[in-house]
Amino acid sequence: VSLCERKVLAIVQLRIGPALFLFGILTPITDGIKLFVKFTLFIIGFDGIYFLFGLLITLFCIFFPWFFLPLGFIILFDKSFSILFLLSIHLVCNVFSVFLVGCFLFSSCFVYLATMRTLFFS
């Protein structure tokens, strides 16, 4: 599917793509390998405690709403403002996780500006 999509986009844009090995069959696999290699090398240069803290905040944002769902007869939190509470917690957690990962883990001013732009538009 990915190979067909690339071929159709290349034909529509009237461009000749780079020479691909085996007609581009292995290109998505090599892209995935490159992504994982870059990701692991990217993490090694950072202080692990900040990265771990950002991941924990993100996991908290993901799993926290499950406490507000009624599971059978068990309701852990029964509040009338639960939707508003969930939205506020979700927004605050996302802002902190994006800010922590974007501002404290990178030493580039461009990453800082991109993080501020992301927080402004979210």
From TrEMBL:
Class in the EC hierarchy, top level: translocase
Catalytic activity: a ubiquinone + NADH + 5 H(+)(in) = a ubiquinol + NAD(+) + 4 H(+)(out)
Keywords tagged on the record: Membrane, Mitochondrion, NAD, Transmembrane, Transmembrane helix, Ubiquinone
Documented EC number(s): 7.1.1.2
InterPro entries the record matches: NADH_UbQ_OxRdtase_su1/FPO
GO cellular component terms attached to this protein's record: mitochondrial inner membrane
Transmembrane segments: 16-37, 49-77, 83-113
GO BP terms, alphabetized: aerobic respiration
A matching Pfam family: NADHdh
Principal place of residence: membrane
Coiled coil: none
Membrane topology label: Multi-pass membrane protein
Localization (cell): Membrane; Mitochondrion inner membrane
Top-level taxon in the UniProt lineage: Eukaryota
GO molecular function term, any single one: NADH dehydrogenase activity
Family from the record: Belongs to the complex I subunit 1 family.
Xref: PANTHER family: NADH DEHYDROGENASE SUBUNIT 1, NADH-UBIQUINONE OXIDOREDUCTASE CHAIN 1
Protein name: NADH-ubiquinone oxidoreductase chain 1
Gene: ND1
